[in-house]
Automatic annotation (TrEMBL), chains A, B:
InterPro entries: HTH_HxlR, WH-like_DNA-bd_sf, WH_DNA-bd_sf. PROSITE patterns: HTH_HXLR. Keywords: DNA-binding, Transcription, Transcription regulation. The keyword Hydrolase does not apply. Residues 8-110 form the HTH hxlR-type domain. It comes from the Bacteria. This is HxlR family transcriptional regulator. One of its GO terms (molecular function) is DNA binding. The lineage of its organism: Bacteria, Pseudomonadati, Bacteroidota, Flavobacteriia, Flavobacteriales. It holds the Pfam family HxlR.
Length: 111, 111
């Protein structure tokens, strides 16, 4: 655990950075879904069960943080496709650890 | 990565469980702070820089999930002390992985 006050403050900031980028109810769920391959906006909305309004906000933030790419497809009507970036792989360990914790927490709560 | 649809749904649920219990801006920060030892409510509010209203909501949820204990101290005026439970140790790996990801994300963004 960091010793000095300054180190503690930095540790808190980096933790909040992660929570800011991947926290909230949906981002890691969207990443989990997209790991199976790119999807169109509507497909993603249906698969995750999120409204278009919330989904577009989440995807915009994920795009800003370099986790997904957005491709406009020349279809009629125009469709937009989302795909994970290689950088999103850096979240694999975090998703795995979160899965494991959620699973054991469920078992503890069931008792 | 889980194969069947059902496994995928369960994987999403356990991920959301973790996000529900430790997501949000403050819970993991509070756990990080309390790892240095128990603190009174006011001390915690000052150390984390959170309002009493938000802090008491976060601590109530953490208490419900078995992450902290709340002790009323027979002082004048009465004070309330918060301490991590042994169960909160199960979050150590998650906090470490989040620290590491936040740190590398900061470096990437600074470019």
């Amino acid at each position: 655990m960091p010793a000095t006050d300054r180190e503690c403050k930095i540790a808190m900031l980096t933790l909040q950075d992660t929570l800011h980028v991947v926290g909230g109810k949906w981002k890691l769920v969207l990443i989990s879904i997209l790991r199976a391959g790119k999807l169109k906006f509507r497909e993603l909305s249906r698969e995750a069960g999120i409204s278009s309004r919330i989904l577009s906000k989440e995807l915009k933030e994920m795009e800003m943080n370099g986790l997904v790419t957005r491709t406009v497809c020349d279809t009629n009507p125009i469709t937009v496709e989302y795909e994970l970036t290689p950088y999103s792989d850096t979240l694999s360990e975090l998703i795995t650890v979160m899965h494991a914790w959620g699973k054991q927490h469920r078992e503890k709560i069931k008792g």
